[in-house]
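Note to self: user wants both folds in one dump. Writing first protein now.
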Amino acid sequence: MTDSPATRVDVTPAAADMLRRLAAVHGPLLFHQSGGCCDGSAPMCFPVGMFRTGGSDVLLGRLAVEGIDPVPVYMSASQFEYWKFTHLTIDLVDGRGSGFSVEAPEGKRFLLRSRMLSDAELAAFGLV
């Protein structure tokens, strides 16, 4: 879990535990913050190589989860324009999403929690 004022993304302990379990089965993972479609705007988790990112995606950061490879988190550039002033935390809740995220068979789903960036974070990202 990261707690630096200059991070855009973080993960809760519950989500980190699920990521460790999923990585043991699927190998290295990545998130892409969905902009709609299947599961609204849920963070979708995929094994690396199963979802292609491209020039229209922004790398928000890499989640440092003890025991597994860092987990990159992406979002489309157009969606990032709306979210660039927020800090995002990936959490885990009971329930099953309707998308293709790898946690779905576990009866859980990843959920995005957001808050506005602090003044220090805004300055660190050059947004003031």
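First done. Writing the second protein, which came from a different request thread.
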Amino acid sequence: MSEDVRNVQAALDAVAEHWQPHRLTSVNDYDVKVVKLLGEFVWHTHPDTDELFMVISGTLTIQLRDRDVVLGPNDVFVVPRGVEHCPRADAEVHALLFEPQGTVNTGDAGGDRTAAVRELG
């Protein structure tokens, strides 16, 4: 990356669409992504990796088949590899995702909500 310091809020301000992750930076083989979420996503799994969600603002519900996990600002939750989940945001949520480079947002589900990771500015 060309910059040493990245501002999370400035990065989120640059994101226009929901469910479209943008790479903020990388740590070793992991990407740190900013994303805006609104509505319900798709049920999916990531068979080969865990996925970490950190909420910056709003309330995010991670629906699991056996329970719902509700995250507020500054909360972190790791969805273990292979666990089916469906994120839902009843109002706009700003979040960070931590996952291996190349991880697809829709996991094994594919479909029209699959997004390529975008670079910020």
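Dump finished. Worth passing along: The chain has a mean pLDDT of 89.
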